[in-house]
Every structure is written in C-alpha cells, then in structure tokens.
Specification:
One of its GO terms (cellular component) is cell envelope. GO terms for molecular function: antioxidant activity; oxidoreductase activity. The chain is of the alpha+beta class and 507 residues long. 30% of the residues lie in helices and 29% in strands. It is elongated.
Length: 507
C-alpha cells in the first residue's frame, strides 16, 4: 500500500512539475483565411526548428509547450509557403507558466500584437511599437516582392531599394530608443540587427551611433556568441580570397580535441561551411562521403558548423560524417567571417600547399563531383607546346584569371588561317550552358579577333550537358598575330559573361 501511495505521489509530482514548466500561446487573428498553417519554431543561435504546427480555424490557433532548460524560449511564429504573408515572422519570448495572447487584423504577421507577462517580450514590443507603421509598409513590400519573383529585375530592384530606405528609418528610431534603455538580451539582439545594417546596407548612415552603443557592452557581453558576431560586423576581419594562404584558428572536434587546418596540408582541403538547418547543406552530405572515398589519397574534407555547440552535436549524431567534422564554436563570428561566408552551403578548395584555389556557394546534385574533377583531376595536366608543320598546339595553357570554373581550355590551335580553342565544359548533368555569338579574343594590344565558327556547340543556343556532366567543343576565331604571347577570351562586358584572361601561348 505504501509503495502504491509512493508511486502515485511520484507520478503526481512529475505531472505537477511538467505543468509548472508549460506555457501557452493563444492566437486570434482576423483577415486570415481559415486553414492557414501556422508553424512555431524554436530558435537556437542562427537556426530554428519546427516544434509545433496548427491550422487557423475561425481565426484561432493554440500552442502548449514545456519551456526549455534555460527557462526562456525564443520562438518564431510563421505562415510559410503562403503568398498572402510577408517573408517574415513574429518573435515570441516564452517562460514557464506564461499565458501569451497573439492578436492581429491582417496578414502582416511581424506586427501582430503579443500580450505577455514575459519581460523580454514587453521590451521587444517597445521596439515594434516605435516603428509599427514602417514595419507594416515594409511587410506590404515583402508581400509584393514575393508575388514578383518572375518580374523584370528593374522592378524587383525598385522594391529592394524601398525596403532599404524604410529599414534605415527604422534603424534611426531604434537607435534613439536604445540610447534610452539599459543593456539587456533584447537590446543586444537589436544591436546585432544594427550591426548587420552597418555591414550590408549601403544607405545605412548611423555607424558612429551604433559604435557608441557597442561601447556600452561589457567584456562578458562582447565575448558571447552574439557579441562576437556584432564585433565582426562592425570591425570586419581581413577576408581571404582566391590565391591567398588559408585562414586558420583553433577548431574543436566532438570530443573537444583541438585541430588546425594546417594539420591537413599535403593534401587538397575542401572546407564545407554548413548548418543543420540548411537543407542544401544536408543534401550535399552523401555526395561528400562519395568524393571523400574517391579522393581519399589526395583530399581531406573539413566540415565547419555554424550551429551552437549543442545543436552541432545533435546534428552530428543524426548525420553520418566520415570526414573531419569540426567547429570553432564561434558560429558565424570566426572562420565564417574570415572566409567572407554570406550564404551556405559555402565551399573553399585549398591546395596541398595551403593556397586557396576556389571559393563558391550553393549545391546541386553532382556539383561537388564536377568541381573535384575540374580542379583535382585537371591539376594533373601541365602546359606543353607542340609544333606540327605550320600549326602550333598549346596544350592546357596557363591562364592568369577566370570568372568561370565551367570552362577549361584543353588546347589552343594556332594556324595561319585560324585560331581554334578546344574547351572542356564541366557542369551539372542535364543542365544547359550557352556560348555567346559575340565571343571574341583580345590580345595584349587590345586587337580583337572575331568568332568565325563552332564545332560541338551552337553559339546563342542552349547546350545541355550529358549524364557525365562533361563535354567538349571548339570555337574558331580569326588567326592571332604572330607576335601575340597571350590573349583574353571574352563574351562581353556583362557580369555573367565568361572571361578567361591571360591565356599564355608561350612558355
């Protein structure tokens, strides 16, 4: 009997304890279609994970959750994949026992009102209220932008410029409010937003005022993850670029052991900047496993997570990573900043000597394999010159620079009647490339040589790569003058026009 009473008391205590950690979010909104899906995300550093969903019925939705170990959950409420909503979310702070009410009269979710006893929410609401009119206009522009994804670039650019202008005015209002408020966690989050504006918004003109606010942080606050991100936004480190030596720092594995990128010199190094909340990053993991095995004698892959330490460890347990899986534990304030990473997945290929060969962003199926074939296999080729009668053949000529890794010049054929360039193209299987009919060569003196014909490709038309992702074609130009030692291949002056500069035809 005593044992049964003890068990009953224990279970009752557990249930009571659980109830004491619960908080509720009750929403009532107007002007929103019934059936609209509402998702609740729990934020951890720069990543959010879905923790609950509900559908709006008669304007109502409801969530009940247990607070996390910290006692303060930072949440994000979103209506995803809905063109009636802006690409924004509602910020909610929750603590145990909090009863939170959300109300709104339209789809401008960022400014839905949050009635809450949580002090962080009350402080956050002050920032919303000081610029509510501007945030509403900003959201309307965001909705318009979502519906104009196929519109001309000039129209979309005009909307972005309006958004930037509104953002600057919002920043000025928040700056004034921050000057009046004491430093707090919400205050630091707002300082982080200002630091991003100072870094990326060309119309931002309040850097000095932002620096004055930054100087109010104590050393402990500056040393926090968010504080370090603010620091590198306001005082950007020197960013390495292609041709530079690798940037290095202390890197930790899952057991806490320290490593350095320099430890892996002697092989090619592929840096993979990733996060568990990045879909393409996770999609790329199986392909990385394949290339790690294929090039294991010549290549070391190093994945660098921007997640918090707890999230990184949880993600690593979920995904099998048979290569170096490290973190500097600074999220985006460490190596991410030094390598200028602005979007992930981001990749950096480093030579066995520690020189940066190539930096790029984004992932598509097969793209990593193509990159490795393009750079690791192509590195086996050396420039050579063969004279065949009156024709000079330059195999794998050295080039000074290029804005594309799709094209490789396999051979330059120099004759009295023509200059023929044999290309090898590397791209995603079954995707298309296109050569401009305006392509030309230009020598050191600025003399141009026009395109006469093509073999294996039709200039101006889409050329689809085969399943291998590799193809060869040639372009025939007017003959180069005998005195020419190098030339440029160019399609034109536009940003996306292919440029291969300083193609050497003499050793």
């Amino acid at each position: 009997m005593r044992k049964l009473l003890f068990i009953s008391f224990f279970l009752l205590s557990c249930l009571t304890s659980q109830a004491q950690h619960e908080y509720t979010i009750e929403g009532h909104v107007e002007g929103v279609k019934d059936g609209t899906l509402v998702s609740l995300f729990l934020l951890d550093g720069n990543v959010g994970s879905t923790v609950a969903t509900d559908s709006i019925r008669n304007g109502n939705f409801f969530f009940k959750r247990n607070a996390g170990e910290s006692g303060l959950d930072k949440l994000s409420l979103m209506c995803t994949r809905n063109a009636d909503f802006p690409s924004m979310s509602l910020s909610i702070y929750a603590t145990p026992n909090a009863k939170i009410k959300v109300t709104g009269t339209n789809t401008l979710i960022y400014t839905w009102k949050v009635d809450s006893p949580v002090k962080e929410q009350q402080e956050y609401n002050k920032f919303i209220n000081v610029s509510r009119d501007l945030w509403d206009e900003y959201q309307r522009l965001s909705i318009e932008a979502r519906k104009m994804r196929s519109a001309p670039e000039a129209d979309r650019k005009a909307i972005r410029e309006k958004e930037d202008s509104i953002s600057v005015i919002i920043s000025s209002r928040e700056l004034k409010l921050m000057q009046e408020l004491p430093v707090s966690s919400v205050w630091i989050e707002k300082l982080h937003r200002l630091s991003l504006s100072a870094k990326y918004n060309p119309k931002f003109s309040y850097k000095e005022e932002t620096l004055a606010l930054y100087n109010r942080l104590n050393e402990e606050q500056k040393a926090s993850n968010l504080g370090q991100e603010i620091t590198v936004n306001l005082f950007p480190p020197t960013i390495v670029k292609e041709g530079d030596d690798l940037a290095d720092t202390d890197l930790f594995d899952l057991d806490g052991n320290i490593h350095h990128l320099a430890d892996f010199k002697g092989k090619y190094i592929l840096l993979d900047f990733w996060s568990s909340g990045c879909g393409p990053c996770v999609m790329a993991l199986p392909e990385m496993k394949e290339i790690q095995e294929q090039y294991k004698e010549r290549l070391t892959i190093v994945s660098l997570s921007s997640d918090t330490q707890s999230r990184w460890k949880a993600a690593s347990a979920q995904h099998e990573m048979t290569w170096q899986n490290l973190s500097d534990l600074k999220q985006t304030a460490g190596l991410y900043a030094k390598y200028g990473v602005r979007g992930i997945p981001n990749y950096v290929l480093i030579s066995p000597e520690g020189k940066i060969i190539k930096m790029w962003s984004g992932y598509g199926k097969g793209s990593l394999k193509l990159k490795m074939r393009r750079y690791l296999d192509a590195s086996k080729h050396e420039m050579s010159i063969i004279q065949q009668g009156n024709t000079k053949l330059v195999n794998y000529p050295i080039i000074e620079s290029t804005n594309t890794d799709i094209l490789e010049i396999k051979q330059v054929e120099l004759a009295d009647t023509a200059t023929i360039i044999h290309f090898r193209a590397y791209y995603i299987p079954k995707y298309w490339i296109q050569v401009s009919p305006n392509a030309k060569l230009m020598d050191e003196k600025g003399t141009t040589y026009t395109l006469k014909s093509a073999d294996g490709i039709t200039p101006g038309e889409h050329f689809f790569l085969p399943e291998s992702g590799e193809a060869e074609f040639s372009l025939t130009f007017e003959p180069l003058s005998p005195q020419v030692k190098s030339f440029n291949f160019t399609e034109g002056p536009a940003k996306n026009d292919w440029q291969i500069n300083g193609v050497r035809i003499n050793k």
